[in-house]
């Protein structure tokens, strides 16, 4: 029975991951899926502990549906999200035995940031979140509040004393100035630069756009229109999912059109080798960023991916283009502004072979970064 259970869970994880990758490649609105992946990393939750494909899908749909509106609405939904509750041991937290995991991570990672709360705040927040459990007979699971298991208030959390509920606790925390700066800073790190922090004036612009309505779409717009977004000094290394999905979209290859066995090998094995598989972040802190993706083993995985991908891609446009112009065509196809001198030399040497030059372009340093 245990063996069968593990097989079913692996099948759920595979199906769920391939479903999302197909959606990312096929969508006519890539920003929605990019934003959902961004929030998945922010509210990092792993199926390895949750052990329910349905619960992970429900969370994914919540992030997609609410990820462009009021952050308070999203935070209200996430604090009682079944997958997150299991991931952070909130299911079954009672007045007699409050579990601090959800309260701690909610403040440290999701809403406030390090240094903006105390250990007393963590304990008090844990008490405020007691009483919530899951109805596991429902499909998908449903959060259920049991008043008899809830700690009686009042609690004092980050400067306010009240008889908090999960909802009122969220409302209090997301209204704090520290929360506004934390959310803006996290999004800056994900979309502008993980290495260069925003200046005081840039952060102020972002917080102003986010506003008292906590408008995440306005925040994203402010990020994309900030001068720092286009500054060549700010370079982001593509996350493995971004790299794989972007390459598939550029070459017009849909996961569903690949033979089933090759689909798993090309996508799941590649992402495992690169270190980022959707629905399975490394920790509650999410995946690493920046140069952490540029390892020797990751380079080997990218080479194998590129060599396999070109065998399934329609390279007709490249084949009918003169060899001397193929490097420029691939730059436009892959969204690369300009090849460096070293890369251009390598591509020029391979230009007579459409498959070889395309595979090399897919592994070039210029294709691994977002500028």
Protein model, in words:
Helix 4 packs antiparallel against helix 5 (71-79) and helix 17 (326-334) crosses helix 19 (354-363). The chain contains 19 helices and 6 strands. The strands form 3 sheets. Strands 1-2 form a two-stranded antiparallel sheet. The chain has a two-stranded antiparallel sheet with strand order 3-4. The protein has a two-stranded antiparallel ribbon with strand order 5-6. It has helices at 2-26, 30-42, 47-50, 53-66, 71-79, 82-87, 101-111, 119-128, 166-174, 177-191, 200-210, 216-225, 240-251, 260-274, 296-312, 316-319, 326-334, 341-349, 354-363; strands spanning 132-135, 142-145, 155-157, 160-162, 236-237, 369-370. The protein is globular and about 75 Å long. The protein is mainly alpha-helical. A hairpin with a 2-residue loop joins strand 3 and strand 4 (160-162). The relative contact order is 0.10. The protein has a domain at 236-370. The longest helix has 25 residues, at 2-26.
